[in-house]
Amino acid sequence: MQPRLSPKRNAAMTLFEVGVVIAIVVVLTAFFLPTLSRTQHRSLKVSCINRLKQINLVGRVWEGDNGDIFPMGVSITNGGSMEMVQTGDVLQTFLVMSNELSTPKILFCPDDAGKFWTNDFAGLSNKNISYFVGVDVTNDADPQMIFSGDCNFETGGVPVKPGLSSFWTNDPVAWQATRHIKSGNIGLADGSVQSTTSASLQNYLQQTSFATNRFAIP
Fold first, then answer.
1. CA–CA separation, 65 vs 59, rounded Å?
2. pLDDT tens digits, residue range 50-93?
3. Integer Cα distance of 117 and 174 in angstroms
4. Contact 187, 54 (CB under 8 A)
5. Phi, psi of 139 (to 5 degrees)
6. Where are the domains of the chain?
7. Which of 3, 9, 68, 216 counts the highest number of beta carbons within 10 A?
8. Within 13 A of 162's CA, how many CA atoms are on the CB side?
9. How many CB atoms lie within 10 A of CB 45?
10. Could you tell me if 185 and 52 are in contact, meaning their C-beta atoms sit under 8 angstroms apart?
């Protein structure tokens, strides 16, 4: 017995229909991609802020256990980082606080494309650190002093190099676009963390008690 043939033929998409589908996909991708990108950046920024908050908290804990002085104000011979940080070495300060930090992973900002995280203090280097340290912030007597923050600075459109950097209150310091889209986070001596634009960063620099703010940048 011969099988019955269906009167319906298998439908296939024409080239025109395929083109329409591709065009729709392209339009939807172009519409949603910027939104997804902004959402991802916001998520990374929140993670970076939370890690900086942990760093500031660790600084306050270390200060409380060491005569109310931050590592930057304590000599190396007494377990601090004073001599090293004044040369622009940020690494020593975080090594000094390693017991309180628990893991060096929090020293890495997930939105920092130029660095990578590590769980090993023994191999810790500037490549694993996304945050600067305020060289002259020895205690929290002035709560508006800048203790730490994102290290993606630029002056006059030129990225600031690693090491010791001095910023006068009127210097054209700004945030690079490579992280947080032209914004950044700073941690103050009172333990708080502030999210800033380039303009508000200038205001914070002017509010400190120093004519020149010195930062050790990884």
1. 10
2. 999 999 999 999 999 999 999 999 999 999 999 999 999 999 99
3. 25
4. no
5. -155, 180
6. 17-217
7. 216
8. 12
9. 21
10. yes
